[in-house]
Write a structure and sequence with these properties.
Elements (H helix, E strand, L loop, with lengths): L10 H9 L2 H15 L4 E11 L28 H13 L4 E6 L6 H16 L3 E5 L5 H9 L4 E3 L18 H14 L2 E3 L2 E3 L5 H12 L7 E6 L16 H14 L4 E4 L8 H9 L4 E3 L12 H11 L2 E5 L12 E4 L2
Parallel strand pairs: 1-2, 1-9, 1-10, 2-3, 3-4, 4-5, 6-7, 7-8, 8-9
Antiparallel strand pairs: 10-11
Helix pairs in contact: 1-7, 2-8, 3-4, 5-6, 7-8, 8-9
This protein binds S-adenosylmethionine (SAM), 6-(5-methyl-2-OXO-imidazolidin-4-yl)-hexanoic acid (DTB) and iron/sulfur cluster (SF4).
The site of iron/sulfur cluster has 9 residues, from loops.
Length: 335
């Protein structure tokens, strides 16, 4: 009952979930969450931008688009050793998964081989790997799978109806096609979206419907709150009612009972109380570390204190238990 996996949700059903009194949707989501997860355990991943800025796409939210007049310093693909040093530092801080993001519309085959060296190096440190590199061909998806990649992040970002107001240089269908290729080769997927871009509640429901009605639910669903970047068209957008974020997380938990739900970008602007409500609503994963890709994240010290105050545990890779061949065991700590 608490892990009914459906792929046939109607838009009205999802809107109805978002319209519930907050206590009711929270109770429903928390009941499902408890039945399927340790409700006091949070997974943490650390992000690194391995290629920054100078992106030809026109995503209206993004600091990295050449179409947006931001002050971002661009950076070519990082050297392998730089990436591995960052992964080691993230592991020391307790991250179990290292996510590498590149500001590409899609990688070239040469780019992909360079990133594969990074994936193999991070694996050898005993960490899970995730990359987000833009659109992929089926051959590229297969190459990543064969190289041992764990997760590929590719977001739908918003509803198909609102999408055209946010991005014009690639279509919603392009995104669905990449997700299909990932599934076809058996890669685990991380796919979600962004809230607070001026979309309606119905758009939010429609985005969730797209995710939950995919042939398989993404293993990981990032819910980002727009980080407003000066120089982007979305800078100055009216901020979202924080309870709407909680409702969306709760609905996501109800719709995708077994997926990890990541409270992603935007935490640095959230109060501790709002984050606590998001965990109650079923979020069980965060980005941890001082930076997201180009924007600051919630400070790690603040996160550790918040976890202690809430009695949450987070999974760490114990460095001293690192085993040859890249195997690792995890343990749960109270920090
Ligand atoms: N270039 C690749 C792509 O677009 O697929 C990968 C990197 S891109 C930065 C990854 C995701 O980060 C985007 O799809 C979007 O959901 C999220 N993102 C980017 N900028 C953001 C912002 N300012 N606020 C919230 N989320 C953001
Ligand atoms: C995701 O859904 N959010 C992350 C990750 N996947 C790649 C990226 C957030 C980016 C926030 C803005 C920035 O740092 O530029
Ligand atoms: Fe480029 Fe990705 Fe940013 Fe869009 S979201 S501008 S594709 S880096």
């Amino acid at each position: 009952m608490n892990a009914v996996i459906r792929h046939d949700w109607t838009l009205d059903e999802i809107v109805a979930l978002l319209n519930l009194p907050l206590n009711d949707v929270l109770f429903h989501a928390q009941t499902i969450h408890r039945a399927n997860f340790d409700s006091n355990r949070i997974k943490i991943s650390t992000l690194l931008s391995i290629k920054t800025g100078a992106c030809a796409e026109d995503c209206a939210y993004c600091a990295q688009s050449t179409k947006n007049e931001t002050t971002l310093k661009t950076e070519r693909l990082l050297a392998l050793e730089t990436v591995l040093n960052a992964a080691r530092a993230a592991r020391e801080q307790g991250a179990t998964r290292f996510c590498m993001g590149a500001a590409w519309r899609n990688p070239t085959d040469h780019n992909l081989e360079q990133v594969i060296e990074m994936i193999e190096g991070v694996h050898a440190l005993g960490m899970e790997t995730c990359v987000t590199l833009g659109m992929l061909t089926i051959a590229q998806a297969r190459r990543l799978k064969d190289a041992g990649l764990d997760y590929y992040n590719h977001n739908l970002d918003t509803s198909p109806e609102f999408y055209g107001q946010i991005i014009t240089t690639r279509t919603f269908q392009d995104r669905l096609d990449t997700l299909e290729r990932l599934r076809e080769v058996g890669l685990k997927t991380c796919s979600g979206g962004i809230l607070g871009m001026g979309e309606s509640r119905r758009d939010r429901a429609s985005m969730l419907r797209q995710l939950t009605n995919l042939p398989a639910h993404p293993e990981s669903v990032p819910i980002n709150l727009l980080v407003q970047i000066e120089g982007t068209p979305l800078f100055g957008q009216a901020s979202l009612d924080p309870f709407e974020l909680v409702r969306v997380i709760a609905a996501t938990r109800i719709l995708m009972p077994l997926s990890d739900i990541r409270l992603s970008a935007g935490r640095s602007e959230m109060s501790d109380e709002l984050q606590a409500l998001c965990f109650l609503a079923g979020a069980n994963s965060i980005f941890y570390g001082e930076n997201l890709l180009t924007a600051p994240n919630a400070a790690a010290k603040r996160d550790r204190e918040l976890f202690t105050r809430l009695g949450l545990t987070f999974e760490t890779v114990a460095a001293e238990r690192d085993e040859p061949g890249g195997c690792h065991r995890s343990e749960y700590i109270h920090d």
